[in-house]
Amino acid sequence: MARRTAGGGGTAVRAARRPEVRLPPLEPYGGGELEPDGDHDGLEFRETDFTGQDGAGARFMDCALTACALDETSLPRARFLDSVLTGVRGVGTNLAESTLRDVELVDARLGGTQLHGAALERVLIRGGKIDYLNLRGARLKDVVFEGCVLVEPDFGGARLERVAFVDCALKEADLGAATLTDVDLRGAAPLEIARGIDRLAGAVISPAQLLDLAPVLAAELGVRVLSDGDAGS
């Protein structure tokens, strides 16, 4: 929630803490398919095709994934720790109930990614475009969406704490039953809320965004907006 500043009557939002990933010297990945519960430490995956592979429960620690294909890749309950994913692409990637901590996701092109029930902490998602991102019931803490396009992201029932949208397009977002604390939406343009406009308590928006959202807010409150010349009924 917004808090009072020390100086007086204004309010401020607590800023999200960004990850500080410092990768060690990496070994190139030796090839082969992912395996459930596999353990990957200090590896570089470059242009690796993981299409359709099963890595449920796998752990990636101090890893770099660059230009990898993740179409229909199954990675539920996977853990990505202190890792950087750059230019990954894929449709239908399953990361349900996964953990992402101290992770940078850069210039991704993803569609229908399943992250429901996942835990994201100190994550930076910068650049790229993600369509139909499923974060239902997920927990996001210290997450920054920067310079990216999110089309119809689903935050239904999720908990967002110290989450910021910076120079980011947020299109037709679903916030139904979500809980927001210190969520900074001022950098989202456009800011489009398809569902859950009533869940914006705990978020910060700009005066211009308030005007843009006024019709949706009026509809939520059941307020009819008529000009002076409109006849009542």
UniProtKB/TrEMBL annotation:
Bias kind Gly residues: ranges: 1-11
InterPro entries documented for this protein: 5peptide_repeat, Pentapeptide-BTB/POZ_domain
Disordered: annotated segments: 1-44
Pfam family, one: Pentapeptide_4
Protein name in the entry: Pentapeptide repeat-containing protein
Provenance organism: Streptomyces viridiviolaceus
